[in-house]
Amino acid sequence: MERRGPSHSGPYGRACTGCFKAKCKCVARADGPGCQRCHSLNRACQPSDSVRRSTILKKQNANARIAELEKKLESVIERLEPRNPPDGDPQREHQPGRLAPAVNSRNVHASLSASAVENDPEESEDTDTDNDQDAGTVLWSPGQAGLDGPPTAAFAASDFASDAENETLLTTFRSRMLQHFPFVHLPSEVTAHQLRRDRPLLLRAIVCVASQKGKPTQSSELRRAMSEALLLQETDRIDLLLALLTYLSWGWDHSKLMSRLTMQAVSLACEMSNPTPQDMDAPMRALFIPDVDTDAPPSTSHFLEQQRAVLGCFVLSSAVSSYFNHVNALRWTPHMDEGLAALGANRECPTDAAFAVQVRLQLLGQKAVYIRQQQQTEQGYMQAPADTPLINALVSLMPLQGELEELKKSLPVSEPSRHLAHIAATELVINETRHAVNAMEPMIISHFSAMTASNTVGRGPSKAAERSWCLWQCVHAIKACADALLALSASDFAGISFVQWAQLARSIVVLNHLTTGLEDQAWNRADVRDVVDMPVLLDRVAGQLELAAQVAGEQEPEGAFTGHARRMREFCSDWRTSTAREHRTSEHLDARSRVYGGARAGGLANMPVIN
């Protein structure tokens, strides 16, 4: 060890190995080599490495790590190079989720050097500051040149589609699909390039639902991009909500994820449907939540765009709620009344009036669902049926039918088939709720219904007659809904949204219950089959799905339409077999009832919902 002055400890970083480990002061001996502590303990005094030598070793280790990372990066680039678009493609520039084109060895080395030594305080002081500009060359391009969109999953299939392909898919979406559920306004002058700049996630969703090529891959990448935008990035909420609604309405391959995606859309809609201006408590909340939203009031066009998205989320979440029965629909708020009135009065967008009709019809049906849910909840807390909750339910149902009749009268005679189907589906929900209430009402409510009936003189209809009337109203509503949807052309049927599909599915499920599952002595199933024959209806739906598959250009045997058509025909065959078996069983029971004095009739507490 080097000689140092007597009674002076070594400079910082020059202590011997023993003193360094023991965290003791290292004092050199004046009369010999080594330090005083090692000499007194009779140990060998081994000098430690100098600061300069340690720094050299650290640089060598960092260079080794950099070389290893460079090899890995080069292998990744070699694998991805065949998928790159040709030079001069306008889509290559300024796209989210894409590696920057300029990648050379010097920039790679500089950026990796910065990342390798960023946690080393000693080495960072010796690093050349001139490399700071090159450290971020390899990065994810987060929407340059006016792109507001979030950085999404790298090398997505939709990113490589040309503007011409995207324009064709946008035209298909605008002409075939959007008319069935116009929750977004896309004028004909809006191009795919403009959507890529202003609404990148919405464009990706449109390309995904309107294209038939690489559907599973595009759907997976779109879901990944929306998840990243929802949880990891600062994204425009309206763009994300519109993308979610588009994918949910026309995706056809997300049945297992539909509940979760719907709840994400509902959460976004709740953020936008609650007005923040004129909130006196917002400055106080900002003291505790610094990132509270204090944006200025939106413009008229942006306000209408938000209201379309929020109301579209209400309609879609209501349809999903009735289809799966375990998802809560978006609750209606007074602020949504204002948005609905604004859309109904808007004449600049030609689809706003039709969309407002859809929302009003869905709201009437959802009000009936709320009445049934509230009545069932109140009955669950009581040991026996009580008069007051059931009377309130019947009184609440009376104005819904009146509002529906007024809405039907206000519509033009040449109303589209999808609106006729929606009207019939709303009538079905109202009559289902009315039948469910009548099924558990005590005798006093039968007298109340008789006294309040305007078309009855003297004694009103019996309880069984009231139930039978509700069931027949359901049968006629089922027939009207199915006829309206199946009257669409194959091209129009190929563009129906999940809202129309849920209406058709619910009609078939309720019809199946009325023809096979309802046990009521006063109910004749054969008469129902004379009005709507279940096998004939299933064959019509399967045939329409097969025609829609041809129009959509499906090539796979398990595509969205071909797969549904195959399952529909299989179910029709099974239904015929099971119905024939039940018919033989019922004839045997009728014979026994004639011998033993009649069969016992059952009742129905609730109409089924689709699951």
TrEMBL record:
Subcellular location: Nucleus
Species lineage: Eukaryota, Fungi, Dikarya, Ascomycota, Pezizomycotina
GO cellular-component term (any): nucleus
Record field: compositional bias (Basic and acidic residues): 80-96
Compositionally biased intervals (Acidic residues): 119-133
UniProt xrefs under PANTHER family: FINGER DOMAIN PROTEIN, PUTATIVE-RELATED, ZN(II)2CYS6 TRANSCRIPTION FACTOR (EUROFUNG)
Protein's name in the database: Zn(2)-C6 fungal-type domain-containing protein
Main localization, broad class: nucleus
Record carries keyword Plastid: no
